[in-house]
Design goal:
Pfam families: Big_1 (PF02369). By secondary structure, the protein is mainly beta. Helices cover 0% and strands 56% of the residues. The chain folds into four domains: 106 residues, Sandwich (Immunoglobulin-like), CATH 2.60.40; 98 residues, Sandwich (Immunoglobulin-like), CATH 2.60.40; 95 residues, Immunoglobulin-like; 93 residues, Immunoglobulins (Immunoglobulin-like), CATH 2.60.40.10. Strands 1, 3, 6, 8, 10 and 11 form a six-stranded mixed β-sheet that branches. It is elongated. The termini are far apart. The model has no long low-confidence stretch (mean pLDDT 91).
Length: 413
């Protein structure tokens, strides 16, 4: 197929130059490919004009050079012949003033020239992941000498939906008669790679390659307890979890935590693993005893959850709470009943300022405060409201000593 470059000059633009070349001549230095150039002016053949031809590769014109000039005949045509001793595809170019046209022509190995093809398996049993490769190294040699044949074109095919790399030719041997071909596949199984030397179909090779299932990534969730025993007074235990895939940290995966019994409070600054796959869990409790933490990765179900147990040690009680009913038996839906709680030191029975209390009421009712801090005289006064005529129980608990409490019953009429 002719390719042309047209000039901008309007005079020259009336000329037309085309070039057509034959292909598949034997690369024996004798067999020729032929190229015919056609020159016309406003559609009419133009005779007696000199055209310049050039060749690429190792091809030569009949004058033994890679440049040749020829004149057009009465049909406006100029014909040139050229040979090659190397199997290859060459480019022939024709020039006339500012006009240029070109085409390609191939030279192949003679079927009569004794050649053989052999193969060495560079890689087999690659994972079928579409990326990993099996590899073959072909060697084309002459017979009977066994000398390497450089520039030999190969025809290659593969079965089983595998991908050749490179996916398309030319597959041509190098200066040592070698060519490395690679194959990838997305599914496990065996494929057949077939190769033959172009122009020498008797020089062929058929090799089976195998693709194995890709390895399943191994996720592991491990942990390190940096503090596993703490007083049950709000002091934190700390566990550092580490998520890995095939030994490498996995970033930006959320971890899920639960505690049994649910007496500990969990503190997670960020549920996502960091760049190295680590995530830190802090927990504290005001109840002495062991707490088992279960950690999992919801987004990766195949990761086995891990459990780790930490201890909260008993803390000596420092306080007790006394209560005094200030107002009782108020009408339901009206003014509140009132209770005053006083916190004393167990050491010297003195009132304690600044102790944090938590309050609750059952079975129903409303509290003026859910929490409170004792005054300088160790007291905190609590109002209790209720819209139902009933008896209720009010409980005060010290936040840092949840087992230290005080209960009082009051009634609404």
């Amino acid at each position: 197929m002719s390719n042309r470059m047209l000039p901008s000059n309007s005079q020259v633009a009336c000329h037309d130059l085309t070039l057509t070349a034959t292909a598949n001549a034997i690369a024996d230095g004798c067999d020729t490919n032929c190229a015919i150039a056609r020159l016309s002016y406003q559609g009419l053949p133009l005779s007696g004009q000199t055209l310049s031809f050039t060749l690429s590769g190792d091809a030569l014109f009949s004058n033994g050079a890679q440049q040749l000039s020829a004149a057009t005949d009465q049909l406006g045509e100029a014909t040139v012949l050229f040979t090659d001793t190397r199997p290859e595809t060459v480019l022939i170019t024709c020039n006339y003033n500012e006009l240029q046209s070109w085409d390609s022509a191939s030279f192949v190995i003679s079927p009569l020239a004794g050649v053989a093809i052999s193969v060495a398996v560079l890689q087999n049993n690659a994972p079928a992941d579409g990326v990993s490769r099996n590899g073959l190294r072909y060697r084309v040699s002459s017979l009977p000498e066994g000398a390497p044949v450089p520039g030999a074109a190969l025809d290659v095919s593969v079965t089983g939906g595998a991908l050749l790399i490179p996916p398309a030719g030319p597959w041509v041997t190098d200066g040592n008669g070698l060519y490395d071909l690679f194959v990838a596949k997305n599914e496990p199984g065996q494929v057949l790679v077939s190769a033959e030397v172009s122009g020498a179909p008797e020089a062929e090779n058929h090799t089976f390659l195998n693709f194995v299932p890709p390895p399943v990534p191994v996720y592991v969730l491990s942990y390190t307890v940096t503090r596993g025993s703490a007083p049950a007074d709000g002091t934190r235990n700390t566990i550092v979890f580490h998520l890995t895939r095939d030994g490498v940290g996995v970033a930006n995966r959320a971890l899920s935590y639960s505690a049994s019994p649910a007496t500990a409070q969990l503190v997670v600054t960020n549920p996502l693993t960091n760049a190295a796959g680590f995530n830190t869990l802090n927990l504290f409790s005001y109840y002495a005893g062991s707490v088992t933490i279960t950690a999992s990765v919801p987004s990766i179900p195949e990761v086995a959850p891990v459990q780790v147990t930490v201890i909260f040690t008993p803390v000596a009680r420092r306080y007790f709470i006394a209560n005094e009913v200030i107002r009782d038996r108020e009408p339901a839906g009206g003014a509140p009943n009132q209770v005053r709680f006083t916190v004393f030191s167990l050491a010297d029975f003195t009132p304690q300022q600044g102790v944090h209390l938590a309050f609750s009421v059952s079975p129903s009712g409303r509290l003026s405060n859910a929490t409170g801090t004792t005054l300088s005289n160790g007291t905190f006064t609590l109002d209790i409201f209720n819209d139902v005529a009933e008896s209720v129980r009010v409980t005060a608990t010290i936040a840092t000593e949840p087992l230290t409490d005080s209960n009082v019953d009051i009634s609404f009429t």
